[in-house]
Every structure is written in C-alpha cells, then in structure tokens.
Write a structure and sequence with these properties.
Elements lengths: L8 E2 L4 H4 L4 H12 L2 E4 L11 E4 L2 H10 L4 E2 H9 L14 H9 L5 H5 L2 H12 L8 E2 H18 L5 H15 L10 H27 L9 H7 L10 H14 L2 H15 L2 H15 L6 H4 L3 H13 L6 E5 L3 E3 L2 E3 L4 E4 L1 H4 L23 H4 L17 H18 E5 L20 E6 L1
Parallel strand pairs: 1-2, 3-9
Antiparallel strand pairs: 2-3, 4-6, 5-11, 6-9, 7-8, 10-11
Helix pairs in contact: 7-8, 7-19, 8-12, 8-13, 9-10, 10-12, 13-16, 13-19
C-alpha cells in the first residue's frame, strides 16, 4: 500500500488582485486561513499553468533561508525568472561556487568598508536633490533611481555621475524593467528585442571597464570592481571576464533597484506623516546639530532607523524570492517534491496579523523598545532576506537610505500632490506604473 503524502492546499489568486495594491495583504490572508504553505497556478510568466508553491511567514522564512536551505536552488529559482541576460552572479549562484565567490566579495561590503562610501553618497545626494525645488512636481522613483545608480556606479565600478553613467542607467532599466512605464503593455517580441540590444550594449561597455582594470598599467582602485579583479582564491585563481561581467551586472542591478524603491517610499511616506518627519528632524538636530552627518551619527538615529524598517515592512522592495527545489521536503505537514518552483512571499509575511500588531498601519514604534515586534518573532521581518545568504549589500543599502532621508529632511519639505494612493502591482518586484509624484519646497 502506497501512502499519499499531503501536498499544499490549492488556492486561487484572482487576476484583479495582481493588478491592485492588495496582493501582499491578500496572500497574507490566505496564509492565515490555509497555513504557511499553499499551491497556486499562475496565469502568466515562466511558470504559467503549472503548480507553484508559496511559502509565507516567519517559519517559512526561517526554513527557506536557514534551517532547510539545502533543499533549495537559487539558480533554479532566479534564472528562469530573470533569464540569462545578467549571467550568473551571487543572486543566482548555488554552493559551492556561491560560497567561494561570496567570500571574495565580503571584504568590500563590511560595515567598516561601507563607511568609506558615505562622502560619495552625500555628494551624489546633494547634487541630485539640489534641483528638486525648481520643479513643480517630481517623481520620487525617477529621482531616487538617479541617485542610487550614480552611487552604485561610483562605488562598484568607479564611474562618476555624467553622460556615461546616465547611459548605463538607461540600459539597465530596459534590461530589468523593459523601459518606460508606458511600455509595459507593448508587444512582447519588441520588448525582448530591446532588452537583448541593451544587454549587448552593456556587455561591450562593462568588458571594456574590466579590461582596463586588468591592465598592468592600471592604478589599483578601491571600488568593488577593482577588488574583484585583484581577488583570488588560495590557489591563486582569479575570476574570469565572464564571471566578473555577471557579478557586475547583478551588483549594479541589486545595488540600486531595491534601494531606489525603499528610499523613494520612505520619502513618500514621510510626505503624509508630518509628525514623523518632524520627529526625524528633531532627532537629527539632537544628534548632529548643524554639523555634517557621519557614519557614527547615522547609527545613533533610532527613530529614523525605525521609520525605514517600517517602510520596508509595508513596502518591501522585493515581494517574492524564487527558489527551485533540489530534494523533497516536508514543511508544516505538507510535502513538496523536487523540481517544484517555490516562492517565498516575504512581503505577505510582513502583513500577517498573527505576527504584527495591526499590520496594515504605519507604526514605526513597533520597532522601538519596549515593543520590538521584530525581536518578538525571529524571521518575521525579511526585507533583506536572512540567514547565511542575507543580502550582501544590506549595510550599503541601509547607509544610503539613511543618508538620503536625513539630507532631504534637513533641507526640504516633501508633500503629496494627490490624495489617491500610489498605484502598484506585483510580481517579484513591485511595479509603479504612474510613478510617485510629490512637490518639494525648501526648509
């Protein structure tokens, strides 16, 4: 007699939910009703029509990111979704290759090393925000993307703001998002053609940068590309051009896209939370006065940090983490077979009422003593992932967002221009087809 192992319950997610602001909240409700694991058949995308498994909540986060991580493949999860255009970098590598390459990169992303990037971040932020008040309105997503890509290009590959960086940003945006928001519904073949053209342009340019760094006449630079070109394992083996290209692709995308989303949302949320904005300004005055921001002072701003964490909870820069299943596993009494696509719904886990008090409400106090809801439930907050493969750039992103918000709050006032909520729909990353328009004034 063969025993049937129970599979996750099948559920349906209406098409209308995917195109609304309610996706994460809807998935959170399913998880509360059906448990932290269930099955869904997507109507579109690389897994259209086939069963995929969603895992939601703190225990799911812990299992996928830590205790059961040997069951999962990043390559089989991410590569079918992002395609082969970016190559194989840390995002879509599996051990043992990932373990080796991450060890080579770790020195460039320590908190101590990141502190050296603060003057660069502050320069870019000051330059890019200086013209905001001259416009009737600005799109925070567009402006934040210019800032974060400029910073990533300088810190990662040593390029200063200017036409060359603008050229790179435009092509990476085509590669990642397809181009301008108005092109989302255009002909699929044309979209793919444009992305392949952007990929080819980027490959030529980035290989030129790599070749220049390999030159014996090149001066060693302390940006990440310079460190990677010089890095080697115990046997003296260095990374190939193909490997360096993939890492630079992934780092430039990951190094600006999620930071763009988080930074823009923090500024937007504060535009409708004047009391929180005033409290941040008071905290900055108390800690910094009229002096310059330093790495040390940025780490002594608990309320600003809480606001950023709460914004990341409600507006996660990444909604779903894809994984492939390498071996059968059991979770919450349900079996998942090898080869099944799995999505860890981290944004939905941030909205579960069994984990968070009044989860739909913006409430930074939940991260401050005595409440500290994140400590009450380990792995409840997973904005930057968790476990051994927690986002490599977490220190970089947090420092940059804090520097951006602190600068804007010290010099400008941000106000909304519409009472309508920002239109957002989901996939792996949130899409904001109408942008995020605000009005900025001085003081």
């Amino acid at each position: 007699m063969t025993l049937t192992r129970p599979r996750p319950d099948p559920v349906d997610i209406p098409e209308s939910v995917w195109a609304s602001n309610q996706l994460s909240s809807f998935i959170a409700r399913i998880a509360e009703e059906h448990g932290p694991i269930f099955e869904f058949r997507p109507r579109g995308g690389p897994h259209a029509g086939q069963p995929v498994v969603y895992m939601v909540g703190p225990q799911a986060n812990r299992f996928v990111l830590l205790s059961g991580r040997e069951h999962f493949s990043h390559d089989q999860g991410w590569t079918p979704v992002i395609g082969e255009t970016l190559g194989h970098g840390l995002l879509n590598m599996d051990p043992p290759q990932h373990t080796l390459h991450r060890a080579l990169m770790n020195p460039a992303f320590t908190s101590v090393f990141m502190a050296g990037y603060l003057p660069l971040m502050q320069r870019v932020i000051a330059e890019r925000t200086a013209e905001w008040v001259q416009h009737d309105t600005i799109d925070l997503m567009v402006e934040a993307r210019e800032i974060t890509f400029d910073v990533a290009a300088a810190a990662l590959v040593g390029l200063r703001s200017g036409p060359e960086v603008d050229w790179l940003r435009e092509r990476f945006y085509v590669l990642l998002r397809g181009g301008d928001p108005g092109t989302y519904d255009e002909n699929w073949d044309e979209l793919v053609r444009r992305q392949l053209h952007a990929r080819d342009d980027l490959q030529v340019k980035l290989l030129e940068l790599i070749a220049a760094r390999r030159s014996t006449a090149a001066v060693a630079q302390d940006d990440v590309l310079g460190m990677l070109v010089r890095a080697h394992d115990e046997a003296g083996n260095r990374l190939s051009d193909e490997q360096l290209l993939a890492h630079v692709n992934i780092l430039l995308v990951a190094g600006h896209e999620t930071t763009t989303t988080l930074g823009a949302w923090v500024l937007y949320v504060l535009g409708e939370q004047p009391e929180c904005a005033a409290r941040i300004r008071a905290e900055l005055t108390s800690v910094v006065g009229d002096g310059p921001l330093t790495s040390d002072s940025l780490h002594r701003l608990p309320f600003l940090s809480a606001v950023i964490r709460e914004t990341g909870r409600l507006h996660s820069p990444v909604l779903l983490l894809p994984r492939g299943v390498l071996s059968d596993f059991e979770f919450a009494g349900r079996w998942v077979e090898v080869g099944t696509p799995v999505f860890l719904a981290i944004a939905a886990g941030h909205r579960m009422p069994s984990v968070w008090d009044d989860p739909e409400r913006f409430d930074p106090e939940r991260f401050l003593p005595p409440r500290e809801e994140d400590r009450r439930t380990p792995y409840g907050l997973a904005t930057f992932g968790g476990g051994p493969r927690i986002c490599l750039g977490i220190n970089f992103a947090q420092l940059e967002v804090m520097a951006l918000v602190a600068h804007v709050q010290r010099h400008y006032t941000v106000r909304h221009v519409s009472k309508e909520p920002v239109r957002e729909f989901g996939g792996l990353l949130p899409m904001l087809p109408d942008g995020m328009r605000v009005r900025v004034t001085g003081g």
